[in-house]
């Protein structure tokens, strides 16, 4: 008969040594079989060589390590399991709790995932896990409903820190060194995730790059779980480096708030031929809210996928340089499928305090986006594409682009197709065409201020068409040492025009009329 103290027993009652050398598996198994809570001994290290199994249908049990540690040796299976009515074994436990211990597993970061994918530190439902330190596993936690996980330190995880299914799972206060896969994976409903801090999220060793996908900081609703992932609250999440993406949000009613910093794309993970996988924030869903977000050095910023609606994003601040040739700072495109519209997307601002060297910076092909402010510190676009491409009826508060003095690009900055509303445009130090209105486009501009223009061959403003279009804009100011004149086809009415150059017809064979009040100097009499 095992000695019992109150409502718990210890493995030492069954012969455990806890010296890190003696195999203590049998002693721990005997302690679990009592169906009592089991307490480890502070400072002891228990060597475990086979999965520890709870009885089927047993009452709730708590494993309280009291500061002990476990050394787990098997790569192909997890450390804890539970028997079923027919004496088979399931890999997750139900009604069991885990607290106050350290566990070290045998899995290295460069393992082939398929060979270690079932090596979980804790896989459980209907219970809690708290105050644990975990390293050397494929997954630290897999949860299957009604779980609470908190006060966790992890490192050297081949796959995930925490993945969840079956609803009502919660995790908080987590620190992790390196997690090679998606750090936090959410598939179901009524989930919360708070205070997650990861040094390397989804970052793989160099030898794994050719065949293994990189991961992200937080992923929701992927792998065909889009319709199941709902009512998710995420707050205070950050990483220093991510392997492929920061936030990948798929589902409905997802809220991300508090401190959001997705860090930098890890340059060692970048593979040139797989540019499409690298996103700071990637969204496909409905009723998704994201607060103010900071990114460091990234490949691309924010991408809104077609079919998304009721999306609210705060201020997005990109304050580092771009990795390799930049993709887009912001993308929202529903042109490929007219049945999958982007609707009611509001972004407070995209502030890019980084230098975009090649390619498009902003790509908007939708009617459904409203953006308060786009600010880009520098663009030197050497590609043939326009840097900011707007097609549709979306709305913009202001677009501000400041180029460094040595910018030599003579390509188009803003290309307009469709009928967007843009209240203010401010451009400083550009060599190419600032605004190109394509044939058939009818943009609604408020103020346009183009300072320090240096155009010699490219008109600062170019309006194409067949001559039938009529547009009415606010005041326009164009200054600098430029010599190329703005060109127009159609009729343009301006609130005012200030520039050392006059307009000229873009095509002598087509109608070209510009209207604006002439300034007059009047000497007033007393």
Coarse shape: elongated
What is Rg? 30 Å
Contiguous runs where pLDDT drops below 50 for at least 5 residues = none
Distance between the termini: 114 Å
Helix amount: under 10%
**Largest sheet entry:** 39 strands, parallel
Oligomer: single chain
- Give a count of the beta strands, DSSP E runs of length 2 or more: 42
Average pLDDT works out at 90
Strand content: over 45%
Helix count?
2
Class based on secondary structure composition and strand pairing: mainly beta
Structure description:
The protein has 526 residues and is mostly beta strands. The strands form two sheets. The protein has a 39-stranded parallel sheet that branches. It has a three-stranded mixed sheet with strand order 5-7-8. The chain is elongated and about 105 Å long.
Which characteristics define this entry?
Pectate lyase superfamily protein domain-containing protein, elongated, 2% helix, Pectin_lyase_fold/virulence, three-stranded mixed β-sheet, single chain, mainly beta, Pectin_lyas_fold, 39-stranded parallel β-sheet, 42 strands, 526 residues
């Amino acid at each position: 008969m095992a000695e019992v103290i109150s409502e718990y027993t210890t493995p030492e009652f069954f012969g455990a040594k806890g010296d890190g050398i003696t195999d203590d598996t049998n002693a721990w198994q005997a302690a679990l079989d009592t169906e009592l809570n089991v307490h480890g001994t502070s400072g002891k290290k228990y060597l475990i060589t086979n999965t520890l199994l709870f009885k089927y249908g047993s009452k709730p049990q708590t494993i309280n390590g009291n500061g002990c540690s476990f050394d787990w040796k098997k790569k192909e299976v997890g450390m804890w399991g539970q028997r079923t009515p027919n004496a088979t074994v399931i890999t997750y436990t139900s009604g069991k709790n885990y607290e106050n211990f350290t566990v070290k597993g045998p899995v290295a970061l460069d393992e082939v995932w398929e060979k270690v994918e079932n090596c979980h530190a804790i896989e459980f439902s209907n219970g809690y896990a708290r105050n644990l330190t975990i390293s050397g596993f494929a997954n630290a936690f897999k949860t299957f409903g009604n779980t609470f996980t908190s006060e966790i330190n992890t490192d050297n995880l081949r796959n995930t820190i925490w993945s969840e299914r079956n609803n009502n799972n919660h995790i908080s206060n987590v620190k992790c060194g390196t997690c090679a896969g998606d750090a936090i994976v959410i598939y179901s409903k009524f989930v919360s995730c708070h205070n997650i801090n990861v040094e390397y999220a989804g970052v793989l060793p160099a030898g794994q790059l050719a065949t293994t996908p990189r991961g992200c900081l937080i992923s929701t609703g992927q792998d065909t779980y889009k319709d199941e992932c709902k009512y998710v609250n995420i707050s205070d999440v950050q990483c220093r480096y991510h392997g492929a993406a920061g936030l990948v949000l798929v589902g409905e009613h997802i809220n991300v708030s508090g401190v959001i910093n997705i860090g930098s794309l890890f340059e060692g993970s970048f593979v040139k031929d797989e540019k499409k996988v690298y996103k700071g924030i990637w969204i496909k869903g409905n009723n998704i809210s994201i607060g103010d977000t900071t990114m460091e050095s990234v490949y691309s910023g924010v991408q809104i996928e077609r079919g998304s609606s009721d999306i609210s994003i705060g201020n997005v601040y990109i304050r580092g340089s771009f990795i390799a040739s930049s993709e887009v700072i912001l993308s929202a495109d529903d042109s490929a499928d007219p049945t999958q519209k982007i609707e009611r997307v509001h972004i407070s601002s995209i502030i890019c305090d980084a230098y975009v060297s090649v390619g498009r910076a902003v790509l908007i092909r939708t009617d459904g986006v409203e953006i308060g402010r786009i600010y880009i510190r520098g663009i030197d676009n050497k590609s043939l594409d326009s840097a900011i491409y707007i097609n549709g009826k979306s709305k913009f508060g202001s677009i501000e682009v400041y180029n460094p003095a040595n910018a030599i690009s003579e390509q188009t900055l803003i290309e307009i197709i469709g009928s967007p509303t843009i209240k203010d445009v401010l451009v400083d130090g550009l060599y190419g065409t600032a605004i190109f209105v394509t044939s058939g486009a009818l943009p609604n501009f408020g103020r346009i201020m183009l300072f320090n223009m240096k155009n010699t061959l490219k008109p600062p403003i170019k309006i194409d068409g067949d001559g039938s279009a009529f547009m009415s804009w606010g005041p326009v100011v164009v200054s600098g040492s430029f010599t190329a004149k703005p060109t127009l086809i159609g009729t343009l009415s301006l609130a005012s025009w200030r520039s050392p150059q006059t307009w000229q017809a873009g095509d002598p064979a087509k109608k070209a009329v510009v209207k604006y009040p002439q300034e007059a100097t009047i000497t007033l009499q007393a």
